[in-house]
Amino acid sequence: MTESKPLTAHSTIGEWLDHPKGAPLIRGLLAQAGVGEEMLAPVRGLPLQQLVALSQGQLPQSVVDDLVLQANDGVMPEDVETGWVEKVTPGRFDGRTVIVTGAASGIGRATASRIAREGGRVIAVDISAERLDELASSLPAGAVTTVVGDITKQDDIDGIVAAAGDRIDALANVAGVNDDFSPAHETSDAVWDRTIGINLTGGFKLTRAVLPAMLQAGAGSIVNVASEAGLRGNASGTAYTVSKHGVIGLTRSTAFMYGPQGIRINAVAPGGVATGIPMPAHPSEAGTARLTPFQQQIPTIATAEQLAASITFLLSDDGVNINGAVLPSDGGWSVQ
User: Residue 273's beta-bridge partner residues?
Assistant: First the structure.
């Protein structure tokens, strides 16, 4: 990158590190945080702006703005997005009612937003009323119906289906939680039950609940969010890994059972994603030590919007003739 091209918040981290003014600024930021430059290898292709989400609240927007000013001698340059840019397909979900869980943040929010902007009626489900309201207010009036609910509770499942009404065209099972990276002998009942309950059982219950409407219509599409941890054993702790292997099993079984009735059921398996999902407060030392060398091999970190692009492709009619597929949306991690 040449000095003639100003650094902005949308310049990639790699561009900052390759720039004579940007590199010292980024290295100084890393030194303050006690983090080595090698930790940025998987995110070199992401915009600097994305560090705000990745930091889980530790890096405020003001720090990024200050870096941009310092790199440009105190002048804020015009910020132009570079690299991959989301391209909405107008009308792709016209007339469709789509349930999206985990819709208040991260991949779920990006998915719900894209569906709404492409004409769909979104039933946005999450446990956070405040963040659901923020989502709804950011989109056209009437595009989003918010449902505050816990997908592990049957009463809340019933409420989600009631909010959708008689017609349910699609479901994106996105809601999920991390475990504490613990191996089996350290995994507590609480960690196991919560992780399996939200990541697998909740998605199963909601799938079971929407299928009657889809069967009656003779059509429907479901996308389950699995994980790289559903494809291998060295991406997370035991509970999370089992839950995501289970999601893939749920996907394949239901795809087989309901494909002849016109219902397509697929899964997306993300790798590293810059969503800001909280990491465990007290991760297992044994599990972390075992997993870290493998997690450091992640080739790249994706944005939530990039995952939403994969999910909405499979969820929409663009995914016609695709049923029972598990799409690794992981930057190539699964082939390493």
Answer: 302
Check residue 32 and give its pLDDT: 86
Catalytic residues: 240, 244
Cβ-count burial of 68 within 10 angstroms (0-12 exposed, 13-18 middle, 19+ buried)? Answer: buried
Checking phi first, is residue 102 left (phi over 0); if not, alpha (psi -120 to 50) or beta?
left
Give the number of other Cβ atoms within 10 Å of residue 57's Cβ.
Answer: 9
- Name, in order, each residue with C-beta under 8 angstroms of 90's C-beta and a sequence gap of 6 or more: 118, 119
What residues have CB less than 8 Å from 318, skipping those under 6 apart?
A: 89, 92
Helix (H, G, I), strand (E, B) or coil at 108: helix
The DSSP line for 243-295 is: HHHHHHHHHHHHHHHHGGGTEEEEEEEE-EEE--PPPPSS--HHHHHHHHHHH
Q: CB-based burial of residue 309 (10 Å sphere; 0-12 exposed, 13-18 middle, 19+ buried)?
A: buried
Report pTM.
0.85
Taking the CA of residue 150 as centre, how many other CA atoms within 13 Å lie in the half-sphere pointing to its CB? 6
Domain boundaries, the chain: 13-71, 97-335
Which CATH architecture does the domain made up of 97-335 adopt?
3-Layer(aba) Sandwich (3.40)
Task: For 242-268, write each residue's pLDDT tens digit.
Answer: 999 999 999 999 999 999 999 999 999
